[in-house]
From TrEMBL:
Keywords: Endoplasmic reticulum, Glycosyltransferase, Membrane, Transferase, Transmembrane, Transmembrane helix. It is found in: Endoplasmic reticulum membrane. GO terms for molecular function: chitobiosyldiphosphodolichol beta-mannosyltransferase activity. It is a single-pass membrane protein. This is Chitobiosyldiphosphodolichol beta-mannosyltransferase. Its EC number is 2.4.1.142. It comes from Linnemannia schmuckeri. Participates in the formation of the lipid-linked precursor oligosaccharide for N-glycosylation. Involved in assembling the dolichol-pyrophosphate-GlcNAc(2)-Man(5) intermediate on the cytoplasmic surface of the ER. Pathway: Protein modification; protein glycosylation. The chain crosses the membrane at residues 20-43, 122-144. Coiled coil: none annotated. Residues 343-450 form the Glycosyl transferase family domain. GO terms for cellular component: endoplasmic reticulum membrane. It catalyses: an N,N'-diacetylchitobiosyl-diphospho-di-trans,poly-cis-dolichol + GDP-alpha-D-mannose = a beta-D-Man-(1->4)-beta-D-GlcNAc-(1->4)-alpha-D-GlcNAc-diphospho-di-trans,poly-cis-dolichol + GDP + H(+).
């Protein structure tokens, strides 16, 4: 009898188990049907966004106007015949040609309050997930219902959360193709802020690994990053390197153009407002600007013999860039100039005017530090320039400085790309991958500390020919190299050659990438090829291009 009762109990348990399984299967199917139905509804083109096979949707959880690479994607996609939707935050003014283009529609997200790094760690941990959840719902709604189903979604990473998982879900529901543009790794950015051992860092690392694993195309900004995605992270999808390149309107200005631009910009006004050294500026009279002058109003412009050297640095004012290096180097240069020049300020060591552009959380802090520096032969001013004025300022400068220190070690500074686009030599902070962009003593110089940067300023600008900068052998040599190498390929040409063929046949791109995924190269130990020898790099690069 007991045996029969045990069998009955066992049968009832099995029956309940089967029912549970059946319910789970039914619920799963119901959710799948629901998601597919939502995807069907969302695929209907709304009135504001006429798309079809030529639809192209860009997603960046940041200020769209302050995302130059994504704006370049948008411009190139329109030129290739796509109808473009852009999802992101409204902030900096957009370039006129994009804002007024009928083929581009901007969908602005409501920007939530920034999670301040100064908050107590507990409050930071509480607020950050809430912000991510709210942002995830907003992004999902806009991507699903405000934007029709395009041929491809191109997503910028970082920020990783919640962009990657939301766009993976949206892409699955609409059965389209996903492209991830890897500017950097979200996990290394978080690690730089919170530390490698932080639970947030570990969660973001796992999140990025799971949700960034598969895409039709993985775009990288450097060969080193492509090798990491291929070997270390074993991403599924086509991996291709699309180097940043400046558009055509980035170029070196003529002397007359420099004169006209600085007559309107009037940097001398900012110098007077932001510095205490009234003797730093040359006298500016009729037919004169900060850097140039004309003998007559209708005559040609020439550089002034009493002008300052113009040095540009663009920064995000974050802990990712050690701005103190530049301040220390400038102070050392100024101390040397005071000692060597004596009472003849600027006679040997030229006056250096640093114009620092950009926005960021540490801007006010460094402005206060600068205001307390007692400098005679060096001046700093900070400003924010429009998208139209920024390349003109670069095109009129003598030197650029990059303080970018890569959190991942495999990204490249966009600011240097802009400078090179204007044939402007740079002094750049050294890290391994930088050599893919800056070739020391060829198109620029590299430094690792303030002392080295100061020495470069001394080497370049001691007895610098202010009125005839084109006679400076080293700087002009670097400009010549840039004009005959870097400037030969612009962004549009690079995009059309490297990315457009893959976008034209996305199904084939995906199928080919899956065949490549079976290649035995994936069986190699990542530790054996994480830092390949120089002799092997060409083979790796060829493999990535095939």
């Amino acid at each position: 009898m007991e045996h029969v009762e045990k069998l009955s109990d066992l049968n009832r348990e099995n029956l309940n188990y089967d029912k549970s399984n059946s319910i789970a299967i039914i619920v799963g199917l119901a959710f799948m049907v629901l998601f597919r139905f939502i995807g069907y509804l969302a695929s209907k083109p709304p009135k504001v966004s006429p798309v079809g096979k030529q639809g192209f949707c860009l997603v960046v959880l940041g200020d769209i106007g302050h995302s130059p690479r994504m704006l370049l994607h948008a411009r190139s996609a329109v030129n290739a015949g796509y109808k473009v939707d852009v999802i992101g935050y409204k902030g900096s003014r957009l370039p006129e040609d994009l804002e007024s283009n009928p083929s581009i529609h901007f969908h602005y997200l409501t920007e939530l309050p920034r999670v301040s790094e100064s908050l107590p760690r507990v409050l930071y941990y509480l607020f950050a997930p809430i912000k991510a959840i709210l942002l995830a719902f907003q992004l999902f709604y806009v991507a699903m219902f405000n934007v029709a189903a395009p041929a491809v979604y191109l997503v910028q990473n970082p920020p990783s959360i919640p962009t990657l998982h939301i766009m993976q879900i949206v892409n699955w529901l609409k059965q389209r193709h996903l492209v991830i543009d890897w500017h950097n790794y979200g996990s290394t950015v978080v690690a730089h802020r919170l530390g490698q051992r932080s639970i947030f860092t570990k969660l973001v690392t796992l999140y990025e690994k799971v949700w960034g694993y598969k895409a039709t195309i993985h775009i990288t900004v450097s060969r080193a990053m492509a090798r990491e995605l291929l070997y270390k992270f074993e991403k599924r999808g086509k991996i291709t390197t699309l180097y940043d390149r400046a558009p055509e309107h980035f170029r070196q200005l003529t002397v007359d153009e420099v004169h006209n631009f600085h007559e309107e910009l009037k940097l001398e006004t900012l110098v007077k407002k932001q510095t205490l050294n009234s003797n730093f500026l040359p006298t500016i009279g009729a037919n004169q600007a900060l850097l140039t002058e004309k003998k007559t109003a209708s005559g040609p412009a020439t550089f002034r013999a009493d002008r300052p050297v113009l040095i540009i640095s663009s920064t995000s004012w974050t802990a990712d860039e050690d701005f103190q290096i530049l301040l220390d180097a400038a102070k050392q240069y100024d101390d040397l100039a005071k000692l060597e020049n004596g009472n003849k300020a600027g006679s040997i060591y030229r006056k250096l005017l640093f114009v620092i552009t950009g926005k960021g959380p540490l801007k006010q802090h460094y402005e206060e530090v600068i205001s307390k520096m007692n400098l005679e032969n060096v001046a700093f001013i900070t400003t924010w320039l429009s998208a139209e004025d920024y390349p003109l300022l670069l095109g009129s400068a003598d030197l650029g400085v990059s303080l970018h220190t890569s959190t991942s070690g495999v990204d490249l500074p966009m600011k240097v790309v802009d400078m090179f686009g204007c044939a402007l030599p740079v002094c750049a902070y050294k890290y391994p991958t930088l050599s893919e962009l800056v070739v020391a003593k060829s198109n620029g110089l590299v430094f690792e500390n303030a002392g080295e940067l100061k020495s470069q300023f001394v080497h370049l600008f001691k007895n610098f020919p202010l009125d005839k900068p084109e006679t400076h052998t080293q700087l002009e040599g670097m400009r010549h190299v840039l004009k005959n190498s870097f400037q030969l390929t612009r962004w549009s040409e690079n995009w059309n050659e490297m990315l457009l063929p893959l976008l034209r046949n996305l199904d084939k791109t995906w199928a080919d990438s899956q065949m490549f995924a079976e290649n035995p190269v994936y069986t190699l130990n990542p530790r054996d090829i994480a830092a390949p020898l120089e002799d092997d790099l060409e083979d790796d690069d060829q493999l990535l291009d095939d």
